[in-house]
Amino acid sequence: xxxxxxxxxxxxLKTLVVLTLMVTVMSFLSIFTTYLNLNHVCRRVVRVVExxxxxxxxxxxxxxxxxxxxxISPEMxxxxxxxxxxxxxxxxxxxxxxxxxxxxxxxxxxxxxxPVEIQIPMKVSITGMSEKYWKLPE
Length: 138
What we know:
about 140 residues; alpha+beta; 2 helices; about 45% helix
């Protein structure tokens, strides 16, 4: 029995395993990138609401613009907020903006059927504090 080709077979098998691991890691990077984009969108919207002291059209404009730039379409909700008058958040009052997104992770793409996907739910909640003082009528 000659073992001349066994080292080549071993090298080919190790190369295949390393390539498979690299492709798997790279496919999971898209999940983390999407989560970072979701976090970025939420952070920016929270900052606009902090400066404006209300969930204004400017906050929604930033939200829709960032949705187009990042290519994700999350749902946004304003929670844990106490409005003082007409959707206004008084100075130093806290609020929380929550964004939810369901990321479609493709597991397998057969040529004869639609791709097999897993929906990965993502949720980002960021609490902010209003920086605007509203003078209220007495």
